[in-house]
Amino acid sequence: MPKSMNFIKEKLNAILLEKQNSAAQFERNVGILNSLKIVINVLYALMIFQVFLILPRSDDEELTRHTLAEVYSLHGTELIVVGVGLFMIITYWIQFNRQLGNLVRSSLVHGVLALMQMFSLMIYLYFVRIDLETDGTKFALEMESVFLALAGFIAAINWYYAKKNNMTSENMSEDEKRAILFKILPEPIAASFSFPFASLSPMAWTISFLIIIPLGFIFNKMIKKTN
User: Is residue 168 a contact partner of residue 215, using CB atoms and an 8 Å limit?
Assistant: First the structure.
C-alpha cells in the first residue's frame, strides 16, 4: 500500500510539474511575441526611412546643373522602382501586423522565421540601391524579385506554422485563418512572376508587378468561396 501511494504521489507531482513548465513556457512565448512586435516594427520604420534616403538629396551634384523637376524626369524609371519598393514594404508591414495581431504567443522557431523575413526585405532594399546606382542591371532586378518572393513565402510558411501550433487566437475561425494565408500569397507570387522580365528592361520588370491586381482578385474570390 505505501508503495502504491508513493507511485501515485510521484505521478501527481510529475503532472503538476509539467503543467507549471507549460505555463512558464507559455509566458516566455508571450514575451517573445511582444518583443517581436517591437523589434520588427522598428525595422520596418527604418526600412521605410531608408527608401526615402534613396531619393535625390538637396546637396546632389545634379541639382547644381538641373532643376529638381529635371532631375526627377531624368530618373523617372528609378523613381518608379523606388515606388514599387515602398509599396511592397508597406504591404508586408500591413501583413505582418495582421498576422501578429491574431497571435496569442510566439516561439523561437516562429521568431526566427519572422526575422528571416525581415533580413530578406533588407537585402531586397540593398539591391534596390544597387539597381539605382547601376541604372537597372539585370542581376539587381532579379535579386529584388528573389528576395521579395522569399520574404513573402517565409511569411506564408510562418503563418502556417503558427496556425498548426495553436498560436492563433481562439476567436479566429478556420476560414479567417485560411483567409490570412490567401492575403499573403499575391505579393510573393507576383515577385516570382517578375523574375524573367528583368531580362527585358527595368520598365518591363516594373510593369510585371501589375499581376498583383488579378492575383488579388483571384485570391479574394477564393476567400469568399471558403466563407
Answer: no
Q: Do residues 128 and 85 touch, judged by C-beta distance below 8 A?
A: yes
Cell of 87: 509599396
Q: What predicted TM-score, i.e. pTM, was given to this entire model?
A: 0.78
Report pLDDT digits (tens) over 70-97. 656 666 666 777 777 788 888 888 888 8
Report the alpha-carbon distance of residue 200 to residue 196 in Å, rounded: 8
Tell me if 202 sits within 8 A of 132, measured CB to CB.
no
Rounded Cα distance between 24 and 68, Å, is 58
Cβ–Cβ under 8 Å, residues 144 and 51: no
| Assigned C-alpha cell, 162 | 503558427
28-55, pLDDT tens digit by residue? 777 788 888 888 888 888 888 877 777 6
Burial 133-165 (b: 16+ CB within 10 A, else e): eeebeeebbbbbbbbbbbbbbbbbebbeebbee
- Helices 76-100 and 138-164, axial angle in degrees (round to 10): 10
Answer yes or no: are the C-beta atoms of 32 and 107 closer than 8 Å: yes
Question: To which residue does cell 503543467 refer?
Answer: 19
d(C-alpha 55, C-alpha 51), whole Å: 7
